[in-house]
Every structure is written in C-alpha cells, then in structure tokens.
Design a protein that fits this description.
With 550 residues, this protein is mainly α. The chain folds into four domains: 1-35 and 70-81 and 94-221, Serine Threonine Protein Phosphatase 5, Tetratricopeptide repeat, CATH 1.25.40; 223-316; 320-475, Four Helix Bundle (Hemerythrin (Met), subunit A) (Up-down Bundle); 478-549, no CATH class. 70% of the residues lie in helices and 1% in strands. The protein contains 22 helices and two strands. A two-stranded antiparallel ribbon has the order 1-2. Strand 1 and strand 2 form a beta hairpin. Helix 20 runs antiparallel to helix 21. The chain is elongated. The two termini are 49 Å apart. Residues 31-72 are annotated as: Disordered. Residues 36-54 have a biased composition (Low complexity). Residues 55-72 have a biased composition (Polar residues).
Length: 550
C-alpha cells in the first residue's frame, strides 16, 4: 500500500521480506534436522554413539576476551541476568551447535553459553541464530537487550575476518532492533558493530544489504543518530568511505534519513578538524558522491566549496611524498638499466672497431678473436673501476638507493656481464667476417657506423629520461600544488569556507617543513613569502565574512 512497515519502505522493505522468508525456511529446516539429534541414554544402558561429524564436544577452556580497536562499547550484561535454575545431570551429554539452536528457549541461557565458550566458532554462530529466533519475544528481550547487543558485539569483534559470522551478527542485531523502544536503547552500541562489519567486507552485497536493513531498524530510535555515527567513521584511518556513502544513499532514497542531515554532519566533521587534510579529502569526495543522488548540488554550493576538484588537489598534495619517492625510484632504476646496456653496447662497438683496424692493417686472423676477448675483459675492468668510485647504487630487491656493499656490487657486476655475454656472439660474427677468405671492409664499416648510431640514440634516451624526470619532479613539488590550491580558493572566494583556508595554511606549513629539510634558504625566501602573500588575503576575506554573519 506504499506505507512504511517497521521503518522500511521501497526496495529495503522488499529485501527484508525476501530475507525474512529465507530465514524462516532455514529455521524450519534446522528444527526438522534437530529432531533426530541424539538424546541422553537411560540409566543402565550403553550410551549411544553419536554419528561421526554430527556432534562436536564443546571446548571447556574459554579464552579471555580481547579488547580490539573497534569503537564498539561493551556492557556488563551478566548483572542484568536473572538467576538460572540449576539442572542436575547424572551424565555429561555432548552438546552440538545444532542442538543449541533447537533446545535453547531463553536469551539468558544464550548469553551464558556465549560467555563460557568464547573460542567455539560453531557455538557462537549457533547462539547468534538463537538470538535471531528468540528476539521475536520482545517482552523477554527488553530487560536483556543491552546484554544481547554486547554479546553480539564481542562475538563479531573476535570473528572480524569471518564473513559468515559477520552476516549472522548483523542479522541478529537487526532482529533485536525490531521494536521502536529497543532500537532507541541499543542504537549507540549496535551502530558501530554494523558499520565495522560492513567496512570489513565492502564487496559482499548480501552483508551490505543486511547492514542497510539494520540501519533502517536502528533509525526507529532517531535517524540523526544513525547519520551522525556513520559520518563520524569517515575520520577513521583507512576507512572505505564509499561503503558509508552507499548506505547513506539507500537510507535517504527510502526516506529513512534526510539529505540535509547528512550534509550538516559532513560539514560539521570537516569544520571540526581543518588540519586533517586526509579527512577533508574524504568529506569532499563523499559530498561529491552524494550530491548526485540524495543531496541537492545547490545546497552543497551554498554551504561549502568542497568539490571533487578540491578533493583532487588535497589528494595530490597528500600523495606528493609517495609519488615523489616512486618517481625517483623509477628514474634510478631506468638510468641504471641504460648504463648497463651502454657498457654492453660499447663493448660490441669497440670489438667491431678492432676487427676493422686489424683487417686494414693485414695482421694475422687468429689475433682478431683474441682482441674481441681482450675488449670484453677491458670493458668489464672499466666498469669495475667506475663502480668502485661510486658510493650508492639502485638496489632492485630493496627498491631504494643503497650503499655499494660487496654483495650488491657483485650482483650488479653479474648483471653487466650477462648484458655483455648477450652481445658476444654478434661480436664474434663480426670477427669471423674480418678473417674470412674474402673479407668485406665495407660490411665492417657499415656495422661499425650502425653501432655508433645505437650508442648515440642510447645517450639521447638517457638525456630524455633525465629531462622527463625533472619535469615530473617539478610538478610534484608541494609549492606547485599549494599554488594550485590557493588559486582555486581565489577563484571561489565567495564560497570558500574558513575550514578550506585553514587547510591551505596547513598545506603551507607542510610545504615549509618539506622545503626546510632540503634547502632552508629556498624554504624561507620563496615558499614562505610568495605563498604567504597569497594566503593572507583569503584569511582576511574569511574573517570579514564571519564578522558580517555575527
């Protein structure tokens, strides 16, 4: 009828109906399979042997709970539990995970089992399934809801890399948040669990769908809390912000959350830490991602100039050091390869010149081959003397410039020797032509000229590689990127916020530190004065705008 049901509408409601039918079918199947589970033997009879693979004895050694980096809070739920009646048992009966799902009829017993067998993954999964089933009894759930959420959070934190367990944990949380009052009470504890599960497996569509369903349930207690918690996770280092943006988009499209609330929280997060350039980049990318669907582009332009272009400028600035290191590494590696190729090519050229000289002088043919080998030895000796004069060389294994230790020098020497050996057959063929019965001086001259041209082209390649490197290195200078950022703010001075100007000042400080580490004179004379003069008017403009508002 187009009306919301349990806080769900549209596609989320359809997905919820499909998932509910699947869970109901799985529950009925597990109940049917559990009817054939082994029971305790009667007194005086031999115990029945459980079928192999159907039962598993629970591990009696429960490990202590580990505190993780999760933002999930924990609650001492055992204080809320009613006293459990002691059930006398004459013989110990093995308990299987399937038996737990079928036999447990109390949330208190589920919590007790989850606490006592924290390292039993099968039991933890079975208890999560039991919570999904038993949480339908809202009357029994209300006094234990915080304890249930805490137990689910601890189980999910221990199995963060287990996709199946994360799915079950999110489904269990969604079942607990079925009622409006329960959702409002457990939302502060449950939201971080759902968010971290979704971030752990960003490519799993089923988990993302379950997470959106859980967000919709938890939004019954207040959609602003859901938006605030999800946006707050953008400040976590290494977060996959696309997952959070997609979830917010689905919630807004189904009218569970409001786009202007998302915009408010994103701007608050950005204004709260202007010096965190990575956070500013994520916020700008999130706004750009959401402005095409749930947030009005006009509203974004009125509030801020955090556009995709600004995010690109911040990303380039943040990656400047990494890109510069990669550029230097590629340059040194390429130049070293060209140098080794030059040594081998020079050997072949020198061998061809000697063959031509011996042919013109009319010396004995057998000496021509010895001259080729002598040229090889002399070129290797020349390379060895040149390498001994160097202090550093590019280490391919470590991907950095390293001191020329004996092992590295030997490895580089072997690389050059391999290059020369590849050209040795061609040099010997040239020598064979020189000492043949009908030697052709013109062919040897042509071969020598061709090798000289190859050496010239190789030298031009080295020059071109060096020139391209310096051009790219100039583009990666932080001062150049900061000039682009300041120019962007000058062009958008009407929309530029105080946060963006403060971010530009932070970029200026970082540029000065980077320049000071290389050349203190340049840092103080060029970067400080020129950039400072251009940033200062922006600061004055922002201050005057703020004074007008207040």
């Amino acid at each position: 009828e187009g009306k919301p049901y349990l806080g769900l509408t549209g596609s989320l409601l359809k997905e919820y109906a499909v998932e509910a039918a699947k869970k109901e079918n799985l529950l009925r199947k597990s109940l049917q399979d559990g009817s054939a589970a082994p029971v305790a033997p009667a007194p005086g009879t031999a115990p029945a042997v459980a079928p192999r693979g159907r039962t598993t004895s629970l591990d009696s050694t429960g490990g202590s709970l580990q505190r993780t980096n999760s933002a999930t809070q924990t609650v001492e739920w055992k204080d809320q539990l009613p006293p459990l009646p002691r059930r006398p048992s004459k013989t110990a009966v093995p308990v299987s995970a399937a038996g737990v799902v079928n036999d447990i009829d109390s949330l208190a017993m589920v919590l007790e089992l989850m606490q006592s067998k924290v390292n039993d993954e099968r039991l933890q999964r079975a208890c999560l399934m039991a919570i999904t089933r038993l949480s339908k009894d809202v009357v029994s759930l209300r006094p234990l809801c915080l304890g249930v959420i805490s137990a689910i959070a601890q189980s999910a934190a221990r199995g963060r890399q287990d996709l199946t367990l994360q799915r079950m944990a999110v489904s269990a949380l969604s079942s607990v948040a079925y009622a409006h009052d329960v959702a409002a009470l457990v939302a502060p504890l449950a939201l971080p669990v759902v968010i971290e599960a979704a971030l752990a497996f960003p490519e799993d569509g089923k988990l993302q769908s379950n997470a959106c369903e859980a967000f919709a349930r938890l939004a019954q207690g207040g959609s602003n809390r859901v938006v605030y918690t999800m946006v707050k996770y953008l400040s976590v280092s290494g977060v996959v912000f696309q997952v959070l943006c997609d979830a917010l988009q689905r919630l807004c499209e189904n009218h569970i959350c409001q786009g202007h609330h998302v915009l408010d929280e994103l701007i608050k997060l950005s204004d709260g830490d202007p010096s965190n350039l990575e956070l500013q980049r994520r916020v700008a990318l999130s706004l750009n991602r959401l402005s095409s669907s749930v947030i009005s582009p006009a509203a974004v332009r009125q509030r801020t100039s955090l556009t995709a272009q600004w995010a690109h400028l911040l990303e380039r600035f943040l990656r400047a050091e990494e890109d510069e290191a990669k550029l230097d590494g590629d340059f040194h590696h390429k130049v070293q390869e060209l140098f080794h190729e030059e040594v081998a090519l020079h050997f072949e050229l020198e061998a061809a010149e000697r063959c031509l000289h011996y042919l013109r002088s009319g010396r004995p043919a057998q000496k021509i081959f010895s001259e080729v080998i002598r040229a090889l030895a002399e070129n290797l000796e020349d390379y060895r003397s040149r390498s001994e004069a160097r202090e550093l060389a590019w280490d391919v294994e470590r991907q950095c410039l390293a001191p020329l230790e004996p092992m590295l020098r030997l490895r580089l020497h072997n690389e050059v020797l391999t290059q020369i050996e590849r050209r040795l057959p061609s040099a010997l063929c040239t020598a064979a032509k020189a000492c043949s019965a009908w030697p052709c001086e013109e062919q040897l001259s042509t071969r020598t000229e061709s090798l000289m041209k190859d050496c010239g082209r190789l030298l031009e390649t080295k020059t071109e590689v060096t020139q391209v490197h310096f051009e790219k290195a100039a583009e990666l200078r932080r001062e150049v990127m900061l000039f682009e950022a300041v120019e962007y703010l000058e062009l958008h001075s009407a929309e530029a916020s105080a946060t963006q100007v403060l971010s530009a000042l932070q970029m200026l400080k970082a540029s000065r530190r980077a320049a000071a580490s290389c050349c203190p004179v340049i840092a103080s004379s060029i970067a400080g004065k020129a950039l400072g003069c251009r940033v200062h008017p922006l600061v004055l403009a922002v201050n005057s705008k703020a004074s007008t508002v207040f």
